[in-house]
Design a protein that fits this description.
27 helices; 21 strands; 18% strand
Length: 737
């Protein structure tokens, strides 16, 4: 099998041996390209057609652009300046046009001689530079350029193809220099080993990999580009899905203890005391979970649910089933506030069933313990003893649960709340606590489009809760344009007072705490701060202003992540008990905080939050019988992208719809990146939203291939591609999945 390494050699060659050290260094530092293979997979962003020009009318400000245009005129001006006091300073102004608009190019000083000679009226060229404004007109200062003339052999050769590829470039490396470098290494594409099984490729009529690489870099027609992209999308989708399918396959080989609830045990006793009936969705998802728990392989399930769809209830019933079967269940929360909240609500829901070993406890009862980093030593020691002896069937905590010192008697199920805030390593460490791998249930209230779930959480089976329990109330959402219409903001505070007068409570959310030492100015300012934009509003300032101003006379309290844990808990308890009217908080209330009497949430500087975060924050109200109100306060201009985003949130309560909007506005890389512990996304041509069909088909194909040949012994090309995808970081991510 020595053939394969020999075949792979050309693509593994370092760029410095092919292009020279200077160019290779820029490519490595600015574009992350190190080998011939990396460069061949650096695809054009778009293509210029000879004769069909980039619209100069649509140039974006402050961006690095490449345009193809014709010189309309060139004028050399002389002027006096500090450097050239006798009027010997020279400035060359060149006007270029493409039919849609005109653009000025400027060259100064000694830099004017060559362009003055080259850029004669009528000359066509490619220009690259950063778009800036001078005297209210767009211009490129000292752009790099490449003449397009039909005389020199090489130019004719490289531009004879009707389509000119334009590459994602940087100021240090223009698009055409990349194009020339790619022309140099293109012959190596012939040696590319194809990762797709021949039957799959032929069955779907896809190009071979060498052909696809040639056509994406040197297409003759738009059809060439389409065929190449279709093929390369399949590579990306299929190789990623094979990695995930192998992960799932490996899981099915692991042993686990089947956990079946006793017919008249804790779960039955709990169901009997429920004051309401479960929704059809909750029953269906519970059945899927119970079926998984009964098998001899670890369950790996992702439970997605809209804000308030009753995920905690489903998770609690799964935990009770495991306790019934003699095991223990652990629930992991991302913050102390949330761990305490879960502990409180679980104990409330279970009543005497949570009083195992205590007077008045039911015969089926178990103990429910809380374990967080800030607990006192005695309480902590008691909780750890209860876990080690098996006295406690259920433990709820933060990552304090993962510490080496924490020992379980028999850990059967791990429930992870809000997976996207939880590192893979942490999930893995908790799993290692069982005698055999425990079952795993991951919950998220951030709805994830199906394709992203297949791509990011492809190693988990997915259950979706999309029905809201009876009695949940509608939430009205409005954008409050504080800069354009200050009276709207005044009205917002009146609305908060009205809610409180009607016996309800409100949240006010701010992006920042405000106790930071703000004397040394941080470079670049706070997150999301550009230039001289004011810093984001802070909890402490806003609470103070509200208590003295529009909300004076109301009971206003603050809550943020830097408060001591006991203080946080006390604030939440007072708020839950109705002793506080308005809670001014950071996003610590974003997940899981449940106060049915809270009916209004005002989100300050709402444009500083992400779409799914706003949806989560809005989900804190409308949890009782009274309707909810969400006010998104922002000073952003009406026409801006930030305002459009807020309008989208105000327009729909459907989290899945919002997650699509969110994904379309961000790049896929961010979505994949956050789940793949920061690994850079491998997706270059595959778009997670648009290519839903390809991803679903690739998943099915990958599952079939891996079932037949888990080690991929018959597919050396696929193994090679997999090794390239799974650099060490990813390998770890998938290992720990």
């Amino acid at each position: 099998m020595d053939l394969v390494p020999a075949l792979r050699e050309p693509l593994h060659q370092p760029l410095k041996s092919v292009l020279g050290p200077a160019t290779a260094k820029v490519m490595a530092e600015h574009l992350g390209l190190h080998t011939v293979g990396d460069l061949l997979h650096h695809y054009p962003r778009r293509y210029e057609e000879r004769g069909q020009l980039t619209h100069l009318a649509d140039l974006p400000m402050d961006e690095h652009v490449t345009v193809v245009a014709q010189v309309a005129d060139a004028r050399l001006h002389t002027f006096a300046s500090a450097k050239a006091p006798r009027g010997k300073g020279q400035r060359l102004e060149v006007t270029i046009t493409d039919g849609s608009g005109r653009l000025t190019l400027v060259f100064f000083g000694n830099g004017v001689h060559k362009p003055h000679k080259d850029l004669l009226p009528g000359t066509r060229a490619m220009f690259a530079g950063k778009v800036s404004v001078f005297n209210r007109r767009l211009q490129l200062a000292h752009p790099a350029y490449e003449l397009l003339r039909g005389d020199a052999e090489e130019t004719v050769e490289s531009w004879a193809g009707a389509l000119i590829p334009l590459y994602p470039a940087t100021a240090k490396l223009e698009s055409w220099k990349l194009a020339k470098a790619i022309q140099t290494v293109l012959p190596a594409a012939e040696e590319a080993v194809d990762p797709l099984p021949e039957s799959l490729r032929a069955g779907r009529g896809l190009l071979s990999l060498p052909e696809a690489l040639l056509k994406i870099h040197r297409p003759h027609t738009q059809a060439d580009v389409a065929a190449a992209r279709a093929r390369l999308k399949w590579d990306e989708a299929f190789v990623l899905q094979v990695a995930l399918a192998r992960r799932r396959h490996a899981e099915t080989q692991l042993p686990a203890v089947p956990r079946r609830p006793r017919p008249d045990g804790l779960l039955t006793a709990f169901d009997d005391r429920l004051p309401f009936t479960l929704t059809e969705g909750q029953r269906k998802v519970s059945r899927e979970i119970f079926d998984d728990l009964a098998t001899e392989h670890p369950m790996h399930r992702l439970l997605q649910g809209e804000v308030g769809s009753g995920k905690t209830m489903v998770a609690l019933r799964a935990m009770l089933a495991v306790v019934d079967a003699g095991g223990q269940a652990a629930m992991l929360a991302p913050t102390e506030v949330l761990a305490q909240q879960h502990h409180r609500s679980v104990v409330e829901m279970m009543g005497e069933l949570a009083e195992g070993g205590m007077l008045g406890g039911s015969e089926h009862a178990t103990k429910v313990v809380l374990l967080t980093g800030s607990m006192g030593t005695a309480a902590r020691r008691r909780a750890m003893l209860d876990l080690a002896t098996g006295e406690a069937g259920i433990v709820i905590g933060t990552h304090a649960l993962i510490e080496d010192k924490v020992q379980f008697h028999d850990l059967g199920l791990v429930v992870v709340d809000e997976q996207h805030r939880f590192g893979v390593e942490q999930r893995d460490a908790l799993r290692g606590k069982g005698k055999q791998p425990p079952h795993l249930l991951v919950m998220t209230a951030t709805p994830i489009p199906r394709t992203v779930a297949m791509t990011v959480f492809g190693d988990l089976e997915t259950s979706v809760l999309d029905q809201l329990p009876a009695g949940r109330s509608p939430i009205a959402s409005h954008v409050v344009p504080a800069a354009d219409k200050p009276h709207f903001l005044a009205r917002a505070w009146e609305r908060v007072r009205e809610e409180v007068e009607n016996g309800h409570q409100a949240y006010v959310v701010c992006p920042r705490i405000g106790d930071e030492d703000e004397t040394p100015k941080k470079k670049g300012g706070p997150a999301g701060d550009e230039g001289d934009k004011r810093p984001p509003l802070a909890v402490l300032d806003v609470a103070d202003q509200l208590a003295k101003g529009p909300l004076s006379g109301l009971r206003v309290e603050v809550l943020h992540g830097r408060m001591p844990p006991d203080d946080k808990d006390a604030v939440m308890r007072r708020y839950a008990a109705g002793e506080t009217d308005v809670l001014v908080a950071t996003t610590v209330i974003e997940v899981g905080v449940n106060v049915p009497n809270a009916t209004a949430v005002v989100i300050m500087d709402a444009d500083r939050f992400g779409v799914s975060q706003l949806h989560q924050l809005r989900g804190r109200v409308g949890r009782g019988s009274a309707p909810g109100l969400c006010l998104l306060v922002s000073e952003t201009p009406e026409a801006g992208a930030a305002r459009q985003r807020l309008n989208a949130v105000a327009a729909t309560l459907d989290g899945f719809e919002l997650s699509r909007i969110d994904l379309e506005q961000r790049r896929e890389g961010d979505v994949l990146g956050q789940a793949q512990s920061g690994a850079r996304t491998s997706l270059k041509v595959l778009a997670v939203i648009e290519d839903e069909e390809i991803i679903a088909e690739a998943r099915a194909e990958a599952t079939t291939v891996v079932a037949a040949d888990p080690e991929l012994t018959a597919l050396p090309g696929l193994r090679t591609a997999l090794d390239a995808l799974l650099d060490e970081e990813r390998e770890q991510y998938l290992e720990k999945g």
